[in-house]
Amino acid sequence: MVHDCVVIGAGPGGLVATKELVEAGIADVLCLEASDRIGGLFAKGYDNLLLTSSAVFSMFSDFWIGPGPLHRFWTKAEVVEYWTRYAAAFGVLELIRFGARVEALRQAADGTWQVQLAGGEVVRAARVVLASGANNAPRYPDWAAGLTAIDAVHAADYRNAAALEGKRVLLVGGGESAADIGLEISRVAGRTWLSLRGATGWVTPRMRGEIAADTATHRGVWGLPRSLGPWISQRVLAFEAARDDPVSQATVMLNRLVSARGGIWGTYGTKSLGLSTAIAHHGMEVVDEIVTVGQGGRQLTTASGAVLDDVDAVVFCTGYTSRVPFLPEGLRARSPRSLYKQVFDPGTGATLAFVGWARPCFGSQFPIMEMQARLVARVFGGAQALPPPDEMTRVAARDAARFGAQLGHHGERVQSLVDYHLYVDDIARLIGCLPPFGRLLTRHPRLWLRVVYGPTQATQFRLRGPGAKPSLAREIIARLPVSPFNHMVKAGLLGRLRVALGQVVPRRVRPVQVGAPALQRKGGG
């Protein structure tokens, strides 16, 4: 038996891919999941895992978040419960085969795929969607191999801080996992250091008062030219610097370390005040990169010469590599940047698709997964053709150069990293479902307001084009929050005025002068 399509993984990417394939009329879809539950890495995350995109931003386009406040962030249990309801509503659960661990994937001479499972069984499919995610192999710095006398754990295996109470702990990394885990550890550890190779991501809060901060991740600001990134960053820094509280001052200190040419648009977001709070209220000390390991890790020395003594444990929040061991050798270590729209490999064309191999700097990864899944379903269903392989390669190289120029070393280190708005709009243009902004403004101004000044989530891409669900989309969009008239909206309006006047903007983020002294990196001891 040859299935029309096999989807590997029942995390959010696998669930939305399976659902979109079925809606596209592909009759025989099988989803393989190695574990006994849906949710992927999210279901196995650390105990206090909280999404860094709000519920209305994280939702899939055609399935409402359910009862409760709009401005909330799901725990891992809550988001898995939402995905379970979604999968049940669209008939996906019955298509999942649990306990099916894939050990090898290879393409036969006739073009079909052979999916070998643990135990030797081979499942055959005409097409395959790889939705096991890009976060599949923990990344460590080279010096981690020297930690032979102390405890060391990666965020992938971390659960809670109970074993670190009273200990002297080094946290490595400045992303969102580091923010949540670092705050939890700093509350109970005897001493906590944060080691940064350069900087954290651009630190923003989850909430501003009672409003989800990512409501401001809207087209009113993110629709501006990326050349305005340094100018926008200056305004955001000035806003935070004017807030006379320790957490805001710590946030300014961390964001001043960001050296990206594009400022806030040249790096990723650390959408949590966990590190700022740990620094301001729990004594976390910021040090630079570790370069020397002594005494099996008990003594660590930074690039600037600071010495950390009597270290008990190191927690690595250093991300992942995109390596999938069961793929054919030629695809095993393939960079997402080499894929057409980070979805299709030019060599395998319309028979193999990668869903979830794009991580947004800001915004949410779940709308990206859905947009990828919608494109895959159209291609696999025959409604849309891919370009010739040479053209796919050329486009992939062009996109890689664009994101490389914008994101610099962050884009080089994290090959899945993309600018959320540029990427989802690009996929929407391919599908033909970009919102009709002009028509909305003239005929449905209230809807336009929510599309442009509400969170840029997936529902607006259901208003028209293939896969459109206009009535449902209008109903959901009418329930979405709209950004208050805050510093981000003002920056967006001023930015548009600058563009209209043709003003030149600064090329780099300049230091912002604040009333209180900025926190500085500290040494060890």
Question: In words, what does this structure look like?
Answer:
- The protein starts with a strand and ends in a 24-residue tail after the last helix.
- The relative contact order is 0.15.
- The chain is of the alpha/beta class and 525 residues long.
- The strands form 8 sheets. A 5-stranded parallel β-sheet has the order 4-3-2-8-23, with helices on one face.
- Strand 5 and strand 6 form a beta hairpin.
- About 3% of the residues have low confidence.
- 34% of the residues lie in helices and 16% in strands.
- Helix 5 packs parallel to helix 9, helix 8 crosses helix 9 and helix 14 crosses helix 15.
Summary of the model, kept short:
The protein is of the alpha/beta class and 525 residues long. 34% of the residues lie in helices and 16% in strands. α7 packs antiparallel against α17 and α11 runs parallel beside α13.
Key features of this structure:
25 strands, 525 residues, five-stranded parallel sheet, 17 helices, 16% strand
